[in-house]
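Below is a filled-in request sheet from our internal design queue. Each sheet records the structural input a requester submitted and the sequence that came back. We keep these sheets so that new team members can see what a complete request looks like end to end.

REQUESTER: design group, bay 2
PRIORITY: normal
MODE: inverse folding
CHAIN LENGTH: 294
BACKBONE (tokenized):
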């Protein structure tokens, strides 16, 4: 424990030296952040202040400042390696932070676990673990009842209702390894639903699913928003960003821009975020044009 502050100081001093010695390099590697101001709302669903995350002394996220709107469907968008999944993991204390603080409704995550739902990347899950779909969904109740305590009938009924909401009621007793990728994703979404959280973090929930599953997921997310929940989604398909999300975070190690999608998801900000990846930018431009026509 005593060594971590020294490593943090070393990291930040190294970055400052880089900025002094080669300011153009720092501007290229770390796009400038849109300022969110010095103060953070006391009860925002998520507030991040001066957060830096590093792996082996190499910054992955740098000086993140952010305040989430209440009841928004928020897309986290950026190129591969931009730190999108790391952002979620740092908020949830799954990876250490080199500096900064995170608050969920004004409190550290450790005090708010029961109010937070998380859907990890499908690739990070051991699908060969010998459990069925109902077992997986029921695990979402443990945050409220505690580990090793039996799930009572009300909890199992809630799990069955959640499976029904995602169209998986008929697969409740099916081994999780026997389900397709889209079905597995629906099961994990059902697990998040039974948590009855106030804020959800979903890491690429549309990855590897068919069009029908993607539409089913987005409808469900919109239902959560209408019930007052706040949902963060790591997302790759720029064409669907204007259609799916109320707010967006454009991320490339730093937050390039954040806010309402109509204001932030612009060609200028996309160029800052993605640089010369013109194919992606063209797709995004087409999506923006379609939205403007309607």
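RETURNED SEQUENCE:
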């Amino acid at each position: 424990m005593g060594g971590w502050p020294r490593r943090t100081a070393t990291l930040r001093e190294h970055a400052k030296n880089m900025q002094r010695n080669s300011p153009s390099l720092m501007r290229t590697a770390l796009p400038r952040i849109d300022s969110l101001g010095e103060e953070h709302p006391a009860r925002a669903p998520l507030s991040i202040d001066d957060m830096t995350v590093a792996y082996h002394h190499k910054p992955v996220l740098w000086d993140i400042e952010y305040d989430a709107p209440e009841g928004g469907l928020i897309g986290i968008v950026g190129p591969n390696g931009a730190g999108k999944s790391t952002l979620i993991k740092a908020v949830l204390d799954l990876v250490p932070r080199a500096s900064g603080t995170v608050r969920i409704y004004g409190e550290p995550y450790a005090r708010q676990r029961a109010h937070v739902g998380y859907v990890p990347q499908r690739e990070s899950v051991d699908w060969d673990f010998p459990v069925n779909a109902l077992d997986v969904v029921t695990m979402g109740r443990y945050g409220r009842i505690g580990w090793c305590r039996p799930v009572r009938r009300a909890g199992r009924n809630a799990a069955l209702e959640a499976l029904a909401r995602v169209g998986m009621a008929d697969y409740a007793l099916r081994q999780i390894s026997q389900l397709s990728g889209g079905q597995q994703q629906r099961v994990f979404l059902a697990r998040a639903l039974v948590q009855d959280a106030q804020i959800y973090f979903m890491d690429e929930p549309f990855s590897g699913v068919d069009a029908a599953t993607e539409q089913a997921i987005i409808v469900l997310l919109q239902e959560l928003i209408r019930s007052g929940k706040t949902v963060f989604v790591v997302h790759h398909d720029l064409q669907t960003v204007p259609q799916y999300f109320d707010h967006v975070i454009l991320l490339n190690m730093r937050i390039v821009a954040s806010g309402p999608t109509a204001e932030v998801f612009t060609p200028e900000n996309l160029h800052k975020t993605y640089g010369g990846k013109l194919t992606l930018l063209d797709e995004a431009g087409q999506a923006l044009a379609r939205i403007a026509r309607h």
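SHEET NOTES:
- Residues 125-197 form one domain.
- The radius of gyration is 20 Å.
FILED BY: M.R.
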